[in-house]
Design goal:
Elements: E1 7-8, H1 15-24, E2 28-30, E3 36-37, E4 43-44, E5 46-48, H2 57-74, E6 80-84, H3 89-99, E7 103-106, E8 119-120, E9 128-136, H4 140-151, E10 155-164, H5 168-177, E11 181-186, H6 187-196, H7 205-213
Parallel strand pairs: 1-11, 6-7, 6-9, 9-10, 10-11
Antiparallel strand pairs: 2-5, 3-4, 7-8
């Protein structure tokens, strides 16, 4: 099966504003000698913590306005905004407010008490839905949310994220789900700006690009960690 171009840029968006903002608030940290360990078990020389966007009034408004503009420009037919728990919830709420649309959020698993719901909020089946997530790495949380929405009769149209590492596994999941992913900022753009601005040393460029190509093997192969 041929993989489609599912990770979509927003060419009319000034991504440098977002890249500069994430670097300024310390959301991006690079430390090849003391790599991060992700939930997946992968070792990573970089970590982008978009939860810090919540503490920046300027950036969170910029993100909400950018996502709302993507909807108005490319998906004016959207009926519902769905946030992924927990990081996507606040951004989904701000986007829904700007677009005057209803909003729900998708739990990571079915609630173990009360009404035992996976999707929280009022909705009717058949609504065309945008899924909002803060970061796309492996795509697990975003596309599990897509599956949960479909099981409830909703119609996911696309996923929109603040930042994407652009891993091939995420592209494959998006292709399998037959959904595009709109990202406000992609990995290569972030790294290029970080190095050009001096926020990240250019000596790390090769390491950062090498890791992105084989994240599941980085740190295990000769030469990946100096």
């Amino acid at each position: 099966m041929t993989t489609k171009t599912v990770l979509r840029d927003v060419p009319w968006l000034d991504t440098k504003v977002l890249a500069a903002g994430l670097l300024q608030i310390g959301a991006v940290e690079v430390r090849p000698q003391e790599p991060f360990t992700w939930t997946s078990g992968w070792k990573a020389p970089i970590y982008c913590d978009n939860r810090l966007v919540l503490g920046s009034p300027f950036l969170r408004k910029w993100v909400a306005q950018a996502m709302a503009a993507v909807v108005e420009h490319d998906m004016p037919e959207i009926d519902l905004i769905a946030g992924t728990a927990t990081a996507g919830i606040p951004h989904a709420a701000w986007v829904a407010d700007l677009l005057n649309l209803p909003m729900v959020y998708v739990r990571g698993s079915v609630k173990g008490h009360g009404k035992k719901r996976r999707i929280e909020g009022n909705f009717n089946s058949g609504l065309r839905t945008l899924v909002v997530e803060d970061t796309l790495s492996t795509g697990n949380s975003a596309f599990e949310a897509v599956e949960a929405l479909r099981e409830e009769g909703l119609l996911p149209v696309a996923v929109c994220v603040i930042f994407s590492y652009d891993f091939s596994v995420a592209s494959e999941r998006a292709n399998k789900a037959n959904l595009p992913v709109y990202r406000l900022l992609d990995y290569n753009t972030l790294i290029r700006y970080a190095i050009q601005s001096g926020a990240v040393s250019d000596e790390y460029q090769e390491t950062l690009l090498q890791w992105r190509s084989h994240p599941e093997r980085w740190g295990q192969m000769d030469g990946f960690l100096d």
